[in-house]
Amino acid sequence: MFDLDVATEGSPVPHTGPSALSPLTDLRAAFDVRTGAMTTLERWSQVVRVVGALVPRGVAALTRERHSFGVNSGLALAHGAPDEVLLVSARCPLVLPEALGLAPGAAIVERASGHLIAWRTTMEGARRVSEGGPVRAGETGVVDRRVLLTRPWHVRTLRDACIAADLNVLAGTPTAIPAGVTPIGGYPIHIEPSARVCPTVVLDVEHGPIWIGPHAVVRPGSILIGPCAIGEHSTVLDRTLIKGQTAIGPHCKVAGEVGGTIIQGYSNKAHDGHLGDSWLGEWVNLGAGTTNSNLLNTYGEVIARATPSGSNERTGETFLGAIIGDHVKMAICTRIMTGSIVGTGTMWAATKPISGTVPAFTWATDAGERSYRLDKFMEVARAAMGRRKISPSMEYAKRLQEFTTEGHGGPRSGEQ
Q1: What is the pLDDT of residues 78-89, one digit of tens each?
Q2: What are the residue boundaries of the structural domains of the chain, listed by start?
Q3: What's the pLDDT band for 15 if we cut at 50, 70, 90?
Q4: Alpha-carbon span 264 to 11, nearest angstrom
Q5: Which of 88, 198, 229, 405 fits 220 for a cystine, CB–CB 3.0-4.6 Å?
Q6: Please, what is the average pLDDT of the chain?
Q7: Which of 323, 247, 192 is nearest to 258 (CA)?
Q8: How many CB atoms lie within 10 A of CB 12?
Q9: Which is it for strands 313-314 and 303-304: parallel, antiparallel or unpaired?
């Protein structure tokens, strides 16, 4: 899979690079973004063998830590890789029949962005692309519908289709319903054997299936409405309402009202408050009462900015909440306006609502906004990760430090 901008021969490289997906891809390759109940890589791995990846330099070391296949270095693929390969964009979360059915030498691009989706080529062709060469396709087809993530809000655009594909795999086989749990509707409910669903829980599958992962816990009084997925070791706290099109990643705690939301993992929304049509990264903590808007009072299309200094863009979405980066912390009763994007590492303790696009590593209080000091940020990050008995690796810490020098408005020495 490739997470770089490449050009088909005779066409320029598209201008929308990985930075336009921030904060989703600040600390991971695009194929490691949770785009449904699964990450994009997990979804593609159901049907193809992934033997190598091309990723931006900033996340290359982290990607090598997380995966056993070859990463960059002239496409250093795993031993025994085939002569013919299918290069697939890491920003294509859905397994496309058009990609799987490509003839040798053929490619497909997305009309809306001009980005390459997939190219069936030889190993030599793949290596040429890894070294900056163009795609020399024998035939290039065009996909008219949106299939690539080129802006942060596209994770919302493609959410429903991704969740449907994942639950078709995860929840395809119904399991027994525990005593005292009330099922409603006819779609499948799959509860992993090590999961615990308490009496008085309601599982509403009138509109889609439900999957509850290994070692997950659903506490009393909660209502889960399918289609939804609860990841392994995650806890749905007492009297929580999980609405449809929600996918909670591993090791999360959720409470209150959550709908249409994907959480990458290791994040907490452990109190009352509404979270809708949003995406959360890892190590996020939302203070009690934090609530977001996912619909304008005008019922109109949401306008957003992909970057803090970027132009306003039409998102194509009527329902769009917030995109919240990794390690974001929010104080109690924080208000988040429709279509907000909150950069990685932000600490928000101001009484004014969050709106627009907040730069990474913003330290916001009623005294104003400044940059979060790197040493203080790392102290908090280590403490939060330590609560899950995880320590940031050397490469992870290095990436956070490098990230601050890449024009993202990150923490600087001597500021808060």
Answers
A1: 445 567 889 999
A2: 18-149
A3: very low
A4: 35
A5: 198
A6: 91
A7: 247
A8: 9
A9: antiparallel
Q: How far apart are CA 36 and CA 261, in angstroms?
A: 9
Take residue 194 and report the two structure tokens written for it.
């090590």
SS3 content of the chain, % helix, strand, coil (to 5): 20, 25, 55
Its pTM surpasses 0.70: yes
Residue 10 is predicted with a pLDDT of: 55
Omega within 30 of 0 (cis) for the link into 23: yes
Pick from 201, 157, 161, 148: nearest CA to 179: 201
- Say what the alpha-carbon torsion angle 269, 273, 278, 279 is, to the nearest 10 degrees: -10
Number of residues that make up the chain: 416
Both tokens assigned to 221: 């009084």
Q: What is the pLDDT of residues 273-293, one digit of tens each?
A: 999 999 999 999 999 999 999
How many whole angstroms from its chain centre is CA 144? 23
**Element at 11 (helix H, strand E):** none
- Mean pLDDT value across residues 380-408: 87
Q: Which two tokens stand for residue 333?
A: 């009763």
Q: Residue 75 in contact with residue 126, Cβ under 8 Å? A: yes
User: Are 233 and 195 a contacting pair, CB within 8 Å?
Assistant: no
